[in-house]
Design goal:
- By secondary structure, the chain is an alpha/beta fold.
- The chain contains 17 helices and twelve strands.
- The strands form two sheets. It has a six-stranded parallel beta sheet, with helices on both faces.
- Strand 7, helix 9 and strand 8 form a beta-alpha-beta unit.
- The chain is globular and about 65 Å long.
Length: 393
């Protein structure tokens, strides 16, 4: 019997880290042949050309629709989705996988889901049914096109069922982010010293980790949130004697302006540093070590929840997404960010308590559950003939 060819789409450093546990499971599974499609931000110099991370794991990814670093307008995201759809449609005229796996809600995911629907490639969506203000439209559109749905939380599963998804297609597995976070060991002193030299910041001492993503099409809200993060980190770092490491944002519209502002901010103080990219092991290692994660990244609500890392979540990007006891929400006012940071830094027992708190995103064993379903589900007309379940009024 020929192996089942399962394609996995990744568009950036952060989602690839989450997909790695599943790719390892699929690679080891008998009768399964995974392949990787790398798109968008993976192929952008401004995001560190992170396709190299995929290749370093032994994959030979198909390259799709590179992000145009020169076009940062909201319309560029629509154009990117169209290019992904077109390139996959052309590729699949010659050869098609037996299934496509996507994660979440990114623009390349929406383009790939459109191609999968019309080319009759069964589509599986991971992290389905989540809520977050910026990404709800694309995420839920992909869910409507997906033939298999893998929510990470019980609330997300209930949401999908309430929207009319067939219970036979909805599988509660937990989030791969927890598998990934638990699989990444702590950095040893030599690794920490090497990272400190490379990044130009002493990481053996307490530091703030800043990850702030733009809100596409909301220039003023993006600016307010970023300035609140920067001023909050500046004043708190000075008060408590902390360094600050900032990461480039993801490949959303408005990211170029965020990067330029971060460059100017980090250049003003030797205890601040900026990097375009961190490999998954290093990112989780530094997430474990930081005094607090500041910004609006989903990593603060998901990965950090299982590591017991406190997070000051700024602004409304993650509005609606479930959060654990590690998340301290702040508005886009600097004074609010500073107040939440002080609350975190002055609580000596906080980290110890957080490590005992359960995560709403599962138990860190999502990958084998997802692999079993992907490898065993019948790939027939019934799977492709998706309809919603009518709910009685």
């Amino acid at each position: 019997m020929n192996p089942r060819r399962i394609a996995v789409l990744t568009g950036c450093r952060s989602d690839y880290g989450l997909l790695r546990p599943l790719l390892r499971e699929l690679t080891a599974a008998e009768g399964c042949e995974p392949e990787v499609y790398a798109a968008a931000g993976h192929l952008a110099p401004s995001r560190g050309m992170t396709i190299e991370l995929v290749e370093a794991d032994g994959f030979a990814p198909r390259r799709l629709a590179p992000l145009d670093d020169g076009d940062d307008a909201p319309a560029a995201m629509a154009e990117l989705a169209g290019r992904v759809t077109r390139e996959l449609a052309i590729l699949w005229r010659r050869e098609r996988p037996e299934m496509l796996v996507v994660l979440g809600d990114r623009v390349e995911v929406l383009g790939a889901a459109t191609a999968a629907w019309y080319c009759r490639v069964p589509l599986a969506q991971l992290q389905a049914g989540d809520l977050s203000r910026v990404d709800d439209g694309p995420r839920h559109a992909v869910s409507r096109l997906a033939h298999l749905l893998f929510p990470a939380t019980a609330a997300a599963r209930r949401r999908l069922l309430a929207w009319g998804e067939d219970p036979r297609r909805v599988h509660l597995t937990g989030s791969l982010a927890l598998d990934h976070a638990r699989a990444c060991r702590e950095l040893d002193p030599e690794e920490t010293a090497a990272l400190s030299r490379r990044l130009g910041l002493e990481l053996g001492e307490p530091f703030l980790l800043l990850v702030y993503h733009p809100l596409p099409g909301e220039t003023e809200a993006t600016r307010r949130g970023l300035e609140a993060c920067l001023e909050g980190c500046r004043r708190t770092a000075e008060e408590y004697g902390l360094g600050c490491l900032a990461l480039h944002p993801n490949a959303d519209a408005g990211g170029r302006d965020v990067i330029e502002r971060l460059r100017r901010w980090t250049a003003r103080d030797p205890r601040r540093a900026l990097t375009a990219n961190l490999p998954p092991q290093e990112f989780v290692g530094l997430l474990r070590r930081c005094a607090c994660l500041v910004g609006n990244s989903s990593a603060g609500l998901i990965e950090a929840s299982v590591l017991g890392v406190p997070v000051v979540n700024v602004g409304g990007r993650q509005s609606g997404r479930e959060r654990g006891a590690n998340v301290f929400d702040a508005s886009d006012r600097p004074e609010d960010v500073i107040a939440r940071l002080r609350e975190v830094l002055e609580d000596a027992g906080l980290r110890r308590r957080l490590t005992r708190e359960p995560s709403p995103y599962g138990d860190g064993a999502a990958a084998p559950r997802i692999r079993r379903i992907l490898c065993e589900v019948a790939l027939d007309d019934d799977l492709l003939a998706k309809t919603l379940v009518d709910k009685k009024p």
